[in-house]
Write a sequence for this structure.
């Protein structure tokens, strides 16, 4: 990967909908050169997919929290059931397996704090694999992959 590839990636992260002509103008390459480079970056797996970033607050989910989850690792089937539950749950935006005292970190959205409390008490903590969970409500975003200031 060279400086043009890096600039293409940075530009597409800001606006993945721009045309190849606009992209070429941004990075000082022809549209066909941009297309070839993007195809190569996709083939290498650097670009996994093109997607849309949604504003969860405008979709009715203004409360975001990060939830640190500790699970019972003694029973592998329980851990697998937990991961399947996470994959199927629409309010869990992301889940990362971690090293250290926390096993998983969930990024969760809800309609309000009361709904977040119900999610934690009635759904997450009722799962057989879950030993403990602590949450931190997001007060504001400084930086994300898709924007720099909120």
């Amino acid at each position: 990967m060279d400086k043009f590839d890096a600039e293409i990636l940075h530009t597409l992260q800001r606006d993945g909908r721009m045309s190849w002509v606009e992209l070429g103008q941004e990075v000082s390459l022809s549209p066909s050169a941009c297309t070839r480079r993007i195809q190569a970056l996709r083939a290498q797996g650097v670009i996994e997919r093109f997607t849309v970033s949604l504003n969860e607050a405008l979709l009715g989910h203004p409360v975001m929290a990060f939830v640190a989850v500790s699970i019972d690792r003694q029973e592998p089937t329980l851990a697998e059931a937990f991961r399947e539950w996470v994959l199927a749950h629409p309010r869990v935006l992301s889940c990362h397996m971690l090293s250290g005292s926390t096993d998983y970190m969930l990024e969760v959205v809800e309609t309000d704090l009361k709904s977040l409390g119900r999610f934690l008490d009635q759904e997450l903590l009722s799962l057989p694999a879950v030993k403990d969970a602590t949450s931190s409500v997001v007060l504001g975003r400084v930086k994300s992959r898709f924007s720099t200031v909120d």
